[in-house]
Amino acid sequence: MAAAAAASLSTSTQKTLGRWLGALLLLRMGIGIYNNFFVLGPLTFSKNFMDRLGAYPEQLNLGIGITALNAALNLLMALLLMRLLHPRFRLWCGLYLALVLAHGVFIWLDISAIQEMAKLSGQYISNTDGVTRAQDYAQGLLLQLNRERTHFIDLIGGFLVMLLFFWIFLKARLTPGFVFYFGLFAAACGLFNFIVQLLGVFEGSNLLMLPAALSQLFTGFWLLIKSVKTTP
User: Fold this and answer.
1) Whole-prediction pTM
2) pLDDT by residue (tens digit) across 36-81?
3) How far apart are CA 85 and CA 9, in angstroms?
């Protein structure tokens, strides 16, 4: 079966769009890892988050900005995919765009939860009364639990977007199948990891996240170097 790139596009344009998708995929993965491990993650998931969130507003704002940028990259990738694919995939692309927009709402909820935590952290730091600080800290723990839930929902939404992205590419046969079969497997691992954590079944494992990182890295470089199969 032939690749399902839009026949109205020239071969060079199809290749260029494919490479842009690869570049955006790598960029999104890179800034996401940087944010989770070096910027926002250390602030929001640290044991002393009540002392840190309000004390590092620049780092917090950078992390929120990177999170918003990630949402924008998701939207841009969806629009590029709609432009690249044949019109018969319009329904799939529309579903993908709708899921990306829904994921954007989850990201906004996650950012709102972080901002609420940061506001309470600033109040906690400025308070000198021991009783009030204890009350603020107890409230902060509840806010952290709420943020963990919104964060997990955000991540589940992200993996649903990833799953549909790989499914559409597989259906359109824009690259060799093994590239996206691995992506589907990786997205399923990520979904399982965070769904069971959200349900409280078990704490999850970073090993289940490894396939997602590897598949995005491999797919991104594949698209960047080889791009997609073209339709004459």
Assistant:
1) 0.89
2) 999 998 988 888 888 888 889 999 999 999 999 999 999 999 999 8
3) 10
Contacting residues for 82 by C-beta, under 8 A, at least 6 apart: 90, 93, 94, 96, 97
| Residue whose C-alpha is closest to residue 150's, from 118, 109, 121, 115 | 109
For residue 35 the two structure tokens come to 């944010």
CB atoms inside a 10 Å sphere around CB 156: 19
Structure tokens, 8: 């109205």
Only one residue has tokens 């494992």, namely: 205
CA distance 208 to 205: 6
So where are the chain's domains?
A: 11-225
- C-beta atoms surrounding 119 within 10 Å: 13
